[in-house]
Amino acid sequence: MNGLLDTAQKIKTMEIRGAGRIARAAASALKGFALNIDSKTLEEFNVEVNKAAQILLDTRPTAVSLYNAVMMVIRYKAGSVEEARAAVAANANQFIDNSNKAVEKIGEIGSRRIRSGDTILTHCNSMAAITVISSSHKAGKDIRVIATESRPRCQGLLTIAMLNELGIDTTLIVDSAVRSVMNTVDLVVVGADVVTANGSLVNKIGTSQVALCAYEARTPFMAAAETYKFSPKTLMGEMVPIEERSPDEIATDISNLKHIKIFNPGFDVTPHRYIDMICTEVGAIPPEMSYMIIKEKLGWEMDSIS
Ligand code: RI2
């Protein structure tokens, strides 16, 4: 249990972060846990696995990648503890492998939308979005990137470090400068924490303002999202919970301002009408096709832990 609790803690504190990375980390933690459970009966094993899954699910509420990964790993049919153990390990390996391949494929597909000479704006730190950018650069296209700081946790600084490592010409801006630069941007590329059944995007706070600016300037807006970022739960109209994070992330001491409080949502919702395409590993789709992705790739319903 210690390894799993350690991963859960790291996801909670965002030492492990990024919707894809937390999903892979959860799959790997479940595999490690299942390989070491000392259960005598299959029923006991199942109960332990479900408890472990719930601990992981309780870490961060928004990114559906975590939920989908956990559900894919703990879905098995087995006649014995050993069979169940092997099934969890195989499911986890498959999820991690598919996830890594999906990001690579998204890079390949997404980069077709980028021309030499383009300026791309990105927000926060998304591996899927960065792979679209890096694939274009590796293909020899002469591109320039504008990266937002992404307050309050400033994950944009992770993005500029990665782009710098790749030798990509990048300019860092504060979040409030997005509208000022939008007329110089050819394409916005961001990641995704959740894509809903109607094609709306839940991503790092500030994404919807970026999308609005892009829409006003008629700049194309692309979300890069593996299919496990799509939420089957939203098929029946379930709302995506938006994580509210600690006021301490906003570096301002308000302890002597008794009428002031801080509101710090981690994510926001970009309505589908502001999104031109969602680049997945199975193709670049219009947001209106999200329902099909959920139906074809994820199934109508995901089991929930009872
Ligand atoms: P990849 C992040 O969430 C950001 O919102 C980012 O756009 C999204 O995950 C997707 O990231 P957080 O964990 O899976 O920083 O594309 O809150 O790496």
Can you walk through the features of this model?
The protein has a seven-stranded mixed sheet with strand order 3-2-1-4-7-9-10, with helices on both faces. By secondary structure, the chain is of the alpha/beta class. The protein is globular and about 65 Å long. It has ten helices and ten strands. It folds into two domains: 2-102, Four Helix Bundle (Hemerythrin (Met), subunit A); 105-304, Rossmann fold (3-Layer(aba) Sandwich). 1,5-di-O-phosphono-alpha-D-ribofuranose is lined by residues 17-21, 124, 126-128, 155, 190-193, 203-204, 266.
Describe how the helices and strands are arranged.
Elements: H1 2-12, H2 19-36, H3 42-57, H4 64-73, H5 81-111, E1 119-122, H6 127-138, E2 144-148, H7 156-165, E3 169-173, H8 178-181, E4 187-190, E5 194-195, E6 201-204, H9 207-217, E7 221-224, E8 267-270, E9 277-280, E10 283-285, H10 290-298
Parallel strand pairs: 1-2, 1-4, 2-3, 4-7, 7-9
Antiparallel strand pairs: 5-6, 6-8, 9-10
Bound molecules: 1,5-di-O-phosphono-alpha-D-ribofuranose.
